[in-house]
TrEMBL record:
The gene is folB. GO terms for cellular component: cytoplasm. GO terms for biological process: folic acid biosynthetic process. It comes from Oryzomicrobium terrae. It catalyses: 7,8-dihydroneopterin = 7,8-dihydromonapterin; 7,8-dihydroneopterin = 6-hydroxymethyl-7,8-dihydropterin + glycolaldehyde. This is Dihydroneopterin aldolase. GO terms for molecular function: dihydroneopterin aldolase activity; isomerase activity. NCBIfam families: folB_dom (TIGR00526).
Amino acid sequence: MDIIFIDDLRIDTLIGIYPREREMRQTIEVSLKIGLSTASAGASDDIHDTINYAEVVGRLRQELGVRQFGLIEKLAEYIATLLLEDFGAQWVQVSIAKLGMMPGVKRVGVVIERSS
């Protein structure tokens, strides 16, 4: 299996369970590993034979711009499902981090793996 990756994508979104988090956007950091075969794209040199990472980034920015999540676990599941169902990935690893949420802690987050 081949892997397309997107590292440290920063998106402003509404996420959290506390009242202050539900009122003010915060920046999250998303890293993705998207598993699929890229052999067809490697042979054809055609973007239609692979997952277009620019489309993935655009879709995530769009979706997270209008949706709200309580837990990063729920957001990670949402992104994994989107990649598997809408983009045809065979396997995904989704890492999401909230930045500077606690004094003395740079990032807190979750990493999940899912497959079709």
